[in-house]
């Protein structure tokens, strides 16, 4: 594949701190396009016009992502003097609507915790671990990658915070509830020592895939639809339920580790019913008061 793609990805890693998963996604999109049009660094507008036909069966959001990757790549090529023109103007401009996140109700979250707490009552290590994982997913809003990769050193002894390394290697402090602190303490008592990871496995740390599977299995045992439950859904529940409780959007942005508040603002759409209710109850003219 094109050496220009490797150079572009190296730039993303070095200058923007792009995470490994982000770099892998860019590589798939760019190399997939190169498989259609040939060497991307030297592709013409006519070459790129072949891509929409190759993408005919893809969702608008997927096409938008691929177009974004190509536009950034050609911008890089121009900056580096690899070419003078930008053929990406031949690409479509799909308007990808960001889907609203899936939401768990308070009752569904309570059912998950009831099941996890019941199973952990006997101090079986796997069950205690599951409870600690659940507390951190819903109680602190961690991403799956952040959670499974937590080092033991991230758990403070006398402060209710975790030090989390998020996307792009950015670190942030994440509050940990008293419930989660107790769950972590229980897990520390029964986990096998020796690993530098809080949630170790035979080959390093618990994987995202295994975490996903474990949550699905817990949901089934709690008589919930496993299709509704995932690490990301619990992160969404954390954000939505905090917003329902009156959390400030900027605070929520910090807790979630979002670089751009526009990413956080999706939760205002999820909680639109509450916002309408808030206006009706708190606005100075609510209830017909004010000048006639």
Helix and strand layout, with pairings?
Layout: H1 3-15, H2 20-37, H3 45-48, H4 51-54, H5 60-79, H6 106-120, H7 125-140, H8 144-148, E1 161-165, E2 171-175, H9 178-190, E3 200-201, E4 204-205, H10 208-221, H11 231-244, H12 249-256, H13 261-264, H14 266-270, H15 272-282
Helix pairs in contact: 1-2, 2-5, 6-7, 7-9, 7-11
Describe the structure.
- By secondary structure, this protein is mainly alpha-helical.
- The protein is built from 15 helices and four strands.
- The strands form two sheets. It has a two-stranded antiparallel ribbon. It has a two-stranded antiparallel ribbon with strand order 3-4.
- Strand 3 (200-201) and strand 4 form a beta hairpin.
- The N and C termini lie far apart (71 Å).
- The model has no long low-confidence stretch (mean pLDDT 83).
Keywords:
15 helices, 292 residues, globular, single chain, two-stranded antiparallel sheet, mainly alpha
Sheet/helix structural class: mainly alpha
The helical percent reads: 55-70%
Strand content: under 5%
Calculate the terminal CA-CA distance, rounded to whole Å: 71 Å
Shape: globular
